[in-house]
Amino acid sequence: MSHQKEAVKSGYWPLYRYRPTEDEHEQPFQLDSSPPTIPLREFALKEARYAMLARTDPDRANLLLDLAQADIDERWHYYEQLAALERQVPHTGGTADATADAVAVEVSSDG
User: Fold this and answer.
1) Which of 17, 39, 92, 95 has its CA 20 to 30 A from that of 25?
2) What is the pTM of this model?
3) CB contact at 8 A, 54 and 60
């Protein structure tokens, strides 16, 4: 269980929920994890598959861990942006005929 907590703390395994909804001003993406608090390296080298690579090819392991950390940082930034988005459901201001007229005007103005 503590190893799983470290996976979340490092950002290796972020916790989030996605609840699509048609409710206006709802946020369908919810980020449940807090920002990573430990480096990926600290978590990864406790796993045999990563530790073995670090023992057999330390230079390659360092390169790959650096790339993975950069990916985690970028992914976390992206998830924060998604969590901040607010959904706005488009409303047609009238009947179906008004929507069809608006589409027709849009199509004819492209030509």
Assistant:
1) 95
2) 0.70
3) no
